[in-house]
Write a structure and sequence with these properties.
Length: about 290
């Protein structure tokens, strides 16, 4: 591996992300929701989705990376003026959650301006609803729904804000852990309007397949065979991460850090850049604190 190839390898480690089958399935679901909505007026009911799964499974990255695929653009109107169009918007709920900060955060996500930080809630809400229509937003991804439970607002009151957004004609994707599953059952109307979508942890068999994809994407100078059930790496990593992605990525990146990949590339011993059980254990200890 040449000096340039090693630099590229380091960049692959830093940007490690695999759009596995579960990611692709949810992206397709998002696109189908937008497509179904395209033939309806703003007054007609559109599809919404409630996405839940354990912390670290990759929910936020799925939403954020989908949003990046559909950036805002300018549309030229009949009178020659330009109007910003934002097909997909990703917004993380404020912590602690308050109605005012929620609508103001949405305003910023839509590129709007806030003139009075201490404005009335109904003013901030009205501005968001206007922007959703004006910018023809097709899908609004709302992440960290759990923050509602860590506020002084009741779950019922919190859900009312999302119902109002859904009434604007924009499809909603509400994202959180399993702790928010009951939000859908607070009202019969929510159950009919929000489809449930659960992202479970990876089974060991699925995990081996994921590790194989990761190694293919990393293309390390010395093959590790991470996805081979005959070697111990997959089972150990699955045990440490409980089948979730965030700690897995962190452990792999830290493992290569221990090997010195992020040091001066001019003095790296290429033959030493190979993961083994001891390196993975050391990295897991640093990341997980065990």
């Amino acid at each position: 591996m040449s000096h340039t190839q090693l630099i590229v390898f380091v960049e692959r480690i830093k940007s490690l992300y695999v759009a596995h089958e579960g990611v692709q399935n949810l992206w397709r679901r998002f696109s189908q929701m937008r497509e179904d909505r395209s033939g309806k007026t703003r007054e007609e009911e559109q599809r919404n989705i409630f996405i839940t799964g354990p912390s670290g499974i990759g929910k936020s990255q799925i939403g954020l990376r989908y949003c990046r695929q559909y950036p805002a653009y300018d549309k030229v109107l009949e009178d020659g003026t330009r109007q910003k169009i934002t097909p997909v918007v990703y917004c993380k709920l404020p912590y602690p959650f308050t109605a005012l900060e929620f609508y103001q955060k949405l305003t910023k996500a839509l590129g709007g301006r806030i003139f009075k930080p201490k404005e009335y809630v109904h003013v901030a809400k009205s501005r968001v609803l206007d922007l959703l229509v004006l910018q023809e937003v097709e899908l609004l991804i709302l992440d960290e729904m759990d923050f509602i439970q860590k506020s002084n607002m009741s779950d019922e009151r919190g859900m009312e804000h999302f119902k109002d957004l859904a009434n604007s004609g924009t499809c909603l994707a509400c994202v959180g852990t399993q702790n928010i599953r009951h939000f859908r059952t607070l009202d019969e109307q929510y159950q009919g309007r929000f489809e449930p979508y659960e992202i479970p942890p990876f089974s060991l068999e699925e995990f081996y397949g994921l590790l194989g994809q990761i190694e293919k994407q990393l293309d390390p100078p010395n093959p590790v065979d991470l996805g081979n059930p005959e070697v111990p790496y997959g089972e150990l990593l699955h045990h440490w991460t409980k089948g979730t992605l965030r700690p897995l990525y962190k452990i792999l990146v830290e493992s290569y850090r221990i090997l010195g990949v992020f040091d001066d590339v001019d003095v790296i011993d290429m033959s030493s850049l190979k993961l083994d059980t001891s390196i993975l254990e050391e990295a897991a200890g640093k990341i997980l604190g065990e």
